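Saturday, quiet lab. Running sequence design on the structure tokens for the scaffold JK sent over.
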């Protein structure tokens, strides 16, 4: 076989490609800068009233005060002139007199609220526009002290690390199963992960819809999912090139288990966000039934992680513990962020990252579902996918808080 022909050399006297790209970007940036600085003077003055829009990104309730974090989502600056709570004007303090485009400010309202009561808040701007806000049920916001972070860590252990680790106890049973059962269990894992994709996407849409839309709202789901999928796919291709002894299916059992753990961990991070946000709003009933429900729900995730080891060498206990931490510990971080940040758009973006990661794991697992004829959705695989989705759906009914 003849050797491949060498790549043609770049003609002499021509600029490198990177320099040409930099020059084009510089020209485009310069023209846009001139338009931004001088273009407005050539346009006629806009007529009509200003467009004033404010979104409430976070509500913090402390004894005698209601603190709102506001974001200007409209094109014009907004100045809050008066505030009313349940149709009564009240005193308030603001961190800035005027909120510019995409800017934020804190508004502290002096009001003796009662626990459990709803409150309708109206923000009256300097131009007379009324922007409504609301507190569905007043509950004091937890203080960000040591006991708070300890509680979030305990919640993360209960709903993340412990259930996932318990699910790994199925490994001895999996190892005694035949190849056909292993194929069914991989399909079960795919069904479970597919349900997590749908569940995470719905949560991200809900979080994005609750935001003011200053930075995109639900669109951040697709941005996060796309970036996550592309980055993980690129990393996977890179590791495949560096591992000459990779299995024919594309990944070793340990690497495939790690990918599953990472995908589930990112989903549990989103689950932690929801738990922390609900706790901060006083909407989470921290009862034993809820903890048990989360445990049953997430135990199936541990089963999914150890499925790649069903037909190979037994993993070390240290590896299993590490995989359990990777999959379960993000729930702790998510609970802390959800209870302290309270930014709906950030939550939507982070949930999107989890969705993209899980889709990438499904792509990795799908080839292992094929039968001897190369069919992807043969009867065993279809039954396994359906069983996985139904199992996670059934346990999800136990965790409605």
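Result came back. Writing it out in full:
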């Amino acid at each position: 076989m003849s050797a491949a022909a060498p790549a043609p050399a770049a003609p002499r006297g021509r600029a490198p490609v990177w320099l040409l790209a930099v020059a084009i970007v510089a020209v485009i940036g310069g023209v846009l800068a001139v338009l931004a600085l001088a273009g407005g003077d050539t346009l006629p003055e806009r007529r009509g009233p200003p467009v004033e829009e404010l979104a409430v990104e976070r509500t913090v309730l402390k004894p005698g005060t209601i603190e709102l974090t506001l974001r200007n989502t409209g094109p014009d600056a907004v100045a809050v002139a008066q505030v009313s709570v349940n149709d009564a004007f009240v005193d308030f303090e603001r961190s800035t007199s005027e909120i510019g485009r995409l800017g934020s400010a804190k508004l502290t309202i002096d009001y003796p609220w009662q626990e459990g009561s709803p409150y309708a808040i109206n923000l009256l701007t300097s131009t007379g526009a009324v922007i409504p806000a609301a507190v569905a049920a007043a509950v004091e916001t937890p203080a960000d002290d040591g006991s708070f972070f300890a509680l979030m860590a305990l919640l993360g252990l209960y709903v993340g690390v412990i259930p996932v680790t318990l699910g790994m106890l199925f490994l001895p049973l999996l190892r005694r199963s035949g190849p056909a059962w292993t194929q069914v269990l991989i399909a079960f894992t795919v069904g479970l992960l597919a349900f997590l994709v749908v569940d995470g996407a719905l949560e991200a849409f809900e979080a994005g819809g609750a935001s003011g839309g200053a930075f995109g709202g639900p669109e951040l789901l697709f941005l996060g999912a796309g970036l996550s999928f592309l980055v993980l796919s690129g990393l996977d291709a890179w590791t495949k090139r560096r591992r000459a002894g990779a299995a024919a299916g594309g990944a070793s059992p340990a690497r495939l288990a790690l990918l599953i753990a990472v995908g589930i961990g990112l989903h549990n991070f989103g689950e932690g966000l929801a738990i922390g946000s609900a706790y901060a709003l006083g909407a989470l009933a921290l009862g034993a039934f809820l903890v048990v429900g989360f445990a049953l729900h997430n135990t199936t995730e541990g089963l999914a992680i150890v499925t790649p080891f069903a037909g190979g060498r037994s993993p070390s206990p240290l590896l299993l513990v590490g995989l359990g931490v990777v999959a379960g510990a993000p729930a702790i971080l998510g609970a802390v962020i959800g209870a302290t940040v309270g930014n709906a758009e950030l939550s939507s973006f982070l949930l999107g990252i989890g969705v993209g990661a899980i889709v990438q794991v499904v792509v990795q697992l799908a080839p292992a579902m094929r039968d001897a004829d190369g069919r992807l959705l043969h009867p065993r695989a279809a039954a396994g996918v359906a069983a996985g989705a139904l199992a996670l759906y059934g346990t999800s009914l136990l965790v409605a808080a």
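Notes for JK: The chain has two domains: 54-135, 146-243+250-399. Residues 318 and 376 are 34 Å apart (CA to CA). Ask whether to fix the surface positions before the next round.
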